[in-house]
Amino acid sequence: MKKMVIAHSPDADDIFMYYAIKFGWVGKENTVFENIALDIETLNTEALKGTYDITAISFGLYPHIRSDYALLRTAVSFGQGYGPKLIRKKETVLKKRFKVALSGKYTTNALLFRIVYPDAKIIYMNFLEIEQAVLDGVVDAGVLIHESILGYDESLEVERELWDVWCELSGGDLPLPLGGMAIRRSLPLTSAIEYESVLTKAVQIARDHKETLSKMLMERNLVRIDAPTLEKYLELYANDESITLNETQYKAIELLFDLGYKHGFFDAKIDPRDFMLPLEYNELRYS
């Protein structure tokens, strides 16, 4: 039996999209899937090292690892009218060089933030620590991500929605690309295509059996939030648009990469369609 480790974040959307595999509802012959849950910036950093064969990443990281990893079409998270939030204490007035906590250098939210706030003094930390850092005055502001956007201390308020930043930069017609999955290019192509198929089926099954799977996750204490919040959160970041990339999402990722290149964060302008697994390979191989 071959062991395949899938690295993902401990956030409710990633847990939801992966656990159809963990519970044995979908799989691959002669393969044992294992998972490791790490915060998104740790996943991004490990992807730069090539640590995991299959890993969740921020779209803001991908151009840096394009030579070693292909993008997968499934288990994607986009914002549509929502996304990370720049928060501060209600009485705080942010100066030009304000100190801010971000969840990691290679996250999509950091890319957008650095484009519009080039003079801010950035401190990177685990996203679970950001709200408290703002409350304690360690930083003047912080960007909340994941479940944190759904509820925070009443003494805090939103300075700016990164969705609004994205709309200003993109023209406002496209969803905000946040996170996806990548697979190591050194894997045999036929195997990589099969792994992508398994992951796609897992997300499809999760959506088809959302109520049952959500209940199982809650009963086993596999998510950090309560049932009503989980329901709301999954409709944001693990919805029907997460199953497989559509043309609008491709355009959004391409624009994100273009913005990163234009502002000097990436070394080349790339089209995400050129970095997907060639699913037609098997058909051509056996034709």
From TrEMBL:
Biological process annotations from GO: menaquinone biosynthetic process
Q: Which residue positions are annotated as catalytic?
A: 146
User: According to the UniProt entry, what is the EC number of this protein?
Assistant: 4.1.99.29
What CDD domains does UniProt report for this protein, alphabetically?
PBP2_MqnD_like (cd13534)
**Could you state a single Gene Ontology molecular function term?**
carbon-carbon lyase activity
Asked if the keyword RNA-binding belongs to this entry, the reply reads no
Q: Does the keyword Lyase apply?
A: yes
Q: Which of UniProt's keywords are assigned here?
A: Lyase, Menaquinone biosynthesis
| A Pfam family the protein falls into | VitK2_biosynth
The protein's annotated pathway: Quinol/quinone metabolism; menaquinone biosynthesis
InterPro entries, per database record: Menaquinone_biosynth, MqnD
Job of this protein: Catalyzes the conversion of cyclic dehypoxanthine futalosine (cyclic DHFL) into 1,4-dihydroxy-6-naphthoate, a step in the biosynthesis of menaquinone (MK, vitamin K2).
Concerning HAMAP family, the annotation shows: MqnD
Query: What protein name applies here?
Result: 1,4-dihydroxy-6-naphtoate synthase
List the gene name: mqnD
